[in-house]
Amino acid sequence: MKVAMTVWGNRVSPVFDSAQTILLAEIKDSTVTWEQREFIAGQIPTRLARMLVDRGIDTLICGAISEQPASIIEAAGIKLVSFVSGNAAHLLEACARGISTDHFKMPGCKIPCCRQQWQQQTLDPQRRPDENGG
């Protein structure tokens, strides 16, 4: 499995849209076997999605992400694990070992997370708030 994670120093970058570095990693037999960091500042989401697909990335892990880039990444066939935070090495290790990453969720983003709740509300007309906000 190949994973990409937007990073800022040794932490998950808090905002995907302004991330400047991406960590690319390969996981085999529950072990991280390869890592590489790349500078991505200024890349538009479609170009970044193409780069991830070309490198065989299965999953993108990131902090907060806007709706449009999230849709572009997912439309490219890449699993998106968003609204997470914390130490990048610890999160990557959790992914390698198949450990739940729930405790890496950003404060206020428990499952289902912000984006998932939004998708459920927009896809399920019965869950949409009425015009009065109720």
UniProtKB/TrEMBL annotation:
Record-annotated Dinitrogenase iron-molybdenum cofactor biosynthesis domain positions: 9-94
Cross-referenced Pfam families: Nitro_FeMo-Co
Descriptive protein name: Dinitrogenase iron-molybdenum cofactor biosynthesis domain-containing protein
Organism: Desulfofustis limnaeus
Taxonomic lineage: Bacteria, Pseudomonadati, Thermodesulfobacteriota, Desulfobulbia, Desulfobulbales
